[in-house]
Design goal:
The chain is an alpha+beta fold. A hairpin with a 5-residue loop joins strand 21 and strand 22. The strands form 9 sheets. Strands 13, 14, 15, 20, 23, 24, 31, 34 and 35 form a 9-stranded mixed sheet that branches. It has a 6-stranded mixed sheet with strand order 3-2-1-4-11-12. A 4-stranded parallel sheet has the order 6-5-9-10, sandwiched between helices. The protein is built from 17 helices and 35 strands. It starts with 9 loop residues before the first strand and ends in a 9-residue tail after the last strand.
Length: about 700
């Protein structure tokens, strides 16, 4: 009909966390609709379907209005790695190298403890098999592989009950032919096996790290395929003609097919989405330097966003035995958003240890039974119970309609397990839980900033997640941050990050060379070949070649050093770029370490390409706010406890929709938005900016000299 307005379409994303699953519908008209449901235990799709059906019914949206590409994030791979619940996995190595994964590195996470256990090798020695083959560092075949031996090894592993096989042969990053031959034979003699090749997972030097990544990928492959299939099939059963895309650890989205082949790339899926959302919000708000602070139900994580881009690292560790100790986990040398786990989540359990000290975490109540205040059977006090007792959450209120909060159960749990054993009042015990959590997070955030050559006091704390805005003020005070930024829909912000993330793939190749003697034409040809591979990979996810953008970099170091600094390279390499590349390296080195060296020879170990493509929808996404109804409620107050004055204060409770853009107000205040509550203390000022963010200027800080 002439003049009829086009029907609004919606893009759908979900983030499956350890406690809650967050769902977002972003409309072509700019509306953002959200829901939060408890994550299902053993049933991934039912909560997603229930939350989506509720949103559709509440807002009168037809299932046909949802776009056919859905983006998801999940903690499934993380849980498989941490809990060692992956498939039984075998490892095939070059003769003499079966124990590399157990020998690991010389580094000990506890320098003075000679009995400190090393990282778990994941694959028991009985399931590690060798084949008599050899390729040298230049890719030349020294000893050819024998098909009969490969068949023998594979049949033996099948007889031992493995469901997946990791193949990591010496120098396969230079010549992958032998690994590829193992895969070809496996497809013939044992087609039921999931095969993971190191040349495909991590094509670079360092045998131990390459082996770890390949093994973890293999362990997860048999589990992740059915898991993602259950989600996609469940959505299609609702009437959604959908294709499922998945968030990676590097801050980009990939197709379900690639996610099934490379599940290791999903290791930090959910947190990476939050960091991408934080970077997007920071750029829009013209606040390019932020510390993204994501506190959910299970953990809290932080990520530095500098110049509007989250930091990327290839030195990520999974499943650390000691939470903050480098070297106690399994190194996964793949590009990953540089996240640090800095503390507990809302469901983390508080307890008194054997020495009589109050501790919080690392154990979590999860979604079942959850914190005591949920009334779902949880008996132990958690961070959320403390927040309820201190008045930050409303007694009798709900968390996005998912559960109703009972302060009596929270007080009982804190009294029984914390207050009585320590001789404290319930309020003192709850305040102790809150302060310990915030202090630990502030210290970890400061250390993370220093390790990256940054001063956290020059950064704005951007807080999100269901528990982030509740704890952001105390974390900012103790870390020295002067400003807090809380985006609209902070409680489901990681899910929003999924809708602004680009499609992205990356590739690395080892070709060791000195800067002074580089054959630039040879390296340019290498880059062109890598870019063609990535273009074809993105094409399988429906990305046309003319929308793909490339970023080149190299892992560079001074001769004699053991580890490298990633350095961004020009888009085209030729004989005239040597001085430019050298200058770029010195700048990257200085940014990392505060200074650089002169008169030293430079070498390049690895060459990297990142290929990305923003979807048409993402590229045109502008700042938008959730639909807000005029606030007609009678103004109300409730007592809230503030540690800096050690007292309860009658505090106004304000809905986000009642704030007026640009109007500066003074704390204290509790600002309620969907899925979260923002705590603003005495002496703070706050305002709503043009993008729906609440900006808070922290009045009293305790970490200014830190």
């Amino acid at each position: 009909m002439a003049g009829q307005l086009p029907q609004t379409t919606y893009r759908f994303a979900f983030d499956i966390g350890g406690t809650f699953t967050d769902l977002v519908l972003m409309g072509s008209d700019g509306r953002v609709l959200t829901a939060k449901v408890l994550t299902g235990v053993g049933d991934v799709i039912t909560p997603i379907r229930a939350g989506l059906e509720t949103m559709l019914r509440t807002h009168g949206i037809a299932i046909g209005q949802i776009a056919d590409v859905v983006v998801g994030a999940t903690t499934a791979v993380t849980n498989l790695v941490i809990e060692r619940k992956g498939a039984p996995t075998g490892l095939i190595t070059t003769a003499g190298f079966r124990d590399v994964i157990e020998i690991a590195r010389e580094l000990r996470f506890d320098l003075y403890n000679l009995l400190a256990p090393g990282p778990d090798p994941v694959v028991p020695r009985a399931l590690r098999r060798e084949i008599d083959e050899r390729v040298d560092a230049t890719g030349q075949v020294v000893r050819p592989v024998r098909d009969a031996q490969i068949e023998e090894v594979l049949r033996a592993l099948v007889a031992d009950g493995v469901q997946a096989v990791a193949v990591c042969l010496l120098h396969s990053f230079s010549n992958p032919a032998h690994e590829q031959r193992v895969k070809e034979i496996a497809r013939r003699v044992a087609p039921q096996l999931a095969i993971s090749l190191s040349c495909e997972v991590s094509g670079e030097i360092r045998e131990y790290e390459r082996t770890v990544a390949t093994v973890l990928n293999a362990c997860a492959m048999p589990m992740v395929g059915p898991y993602l299939g259950a989600i996609e099939d469940g959505l299609r059963a609702m009437g959604l003609n959908t294709t499922l895309n998945i968030m990676q650890s590097n801050g980009g989205v990939i197709s379900r097919d690639l996610g099934e082949r490379m599940p290791i790339r999903m290791l930090e899926s959910g947190p990476a989405a939050g960091a991408l959302g934080a970077a997007h919000a920071a750029r829009q708000a013209d606040t390019p330097n932020v510390m993204a602070f994501d506190m959910g139900g299970t953990t809290a994580k932080a990520c530095l966003v500098s110049g509007g881009r989250p930091n990327i690292t290839t030195e990520f560790e999974a499943a650390r035995q000691q939470r903050f100790k480098k070297g106690s986990g399994l190194p996964v040398r793949l590009p990953t958003i540089d996240l640090i786990e800095i503390g507990a989540g809302g469901g983390s359990i508080a307890h008194v240890d054997e020495t009589g000290l109050l501790k919080v975490g690392p154990h979590s109540a999860g979604s079942s039974p959850g914190p005591a205040c949920y009334g779902l059977g949880g008996e132990y006090p958690t961070v959320t119970d403390a927040a309820l007792v201190l008045g930050y959450l409303e007694a009798g209120g709900t968390l996005s309609g998912a559960v109703r909060l009972r302060v009596d159960l929270a007080e009982r749990a804190i009294e029984e397990h914390i207050a009585r054993p320590l001789g404290l009042s319930v309020i003192e015990a709850a305040n102790g839980i809150h302060r310990i959590v915030c202090e630990h997070m502030a210290v970890a955030a400061k250390i993370h900033a220093v390790e990256n050559g940054r001063d956290i006091r020059r950064y704005t704390l951007l807080a999100f997640g269901g528990a982030g805005p509740i704890h952001a003020r105390e974390v900012a005070r103790r870390s020295g941050c002067a400003e807090i930024l809380v985006p609209d829909n902070a409680g489901v912000f990681s899910a929003i990050g999924l809708l602004v993330a680009p499609m992205k793939m990356d590739l690395v190749r080892t070709r060791f060379t000195r800067l002074a003697t580089i054959d630039w034409a040879d390296i340019e040809a290498l880059f062109v070949d890598m870019e063609q591979v990535l273009t074809r990979e993105l094409a399988t996810a429906g990305v046309p070649a003319d929308r793909v953008e490339f970023r080149r970099s190299g892992d560079m170091r001074f001769v004699g050093q053991g580890f490298e600094v990633e350095t961004e390279l020009p888009g085209h390499l030729h004989d005239g770029v040597r001085e430019d590349v050298e200058q770029r390296f010195h700048e990257a080195y200085r940014a990392r370490f505060g200074n650089t060296l002169t008169g030293q020879r430079i070498e390049i170990v690895n060459w990297r390409v990142e290929a990305s493509a923003a979807s048409a929808e993402t590229a045109s996404t502008e700042a938008s706010r959730s639909p807000v109804q005029p606030d007609s409620e009678t103004p109300r107050n409730r007592p809230a406890f503030f540690p800096d004055i050690n007292a309860f204060v009658s505090t106004p409770v304000i809905r986000l929709g009642a704030l007026h853009q640009g109007e500066v107000a003074h704390g204290p205040a509790l600002i309620e938005q969907a899925g979260s509550t923002i705590v603003i203390g005495p002496g703070d000022t706050y305002m709503l900016d043009a993008f729906g963010n609440v900006r808070i200027s922290v009045g009293a800080r305790t970490g200014q000299s830190a």
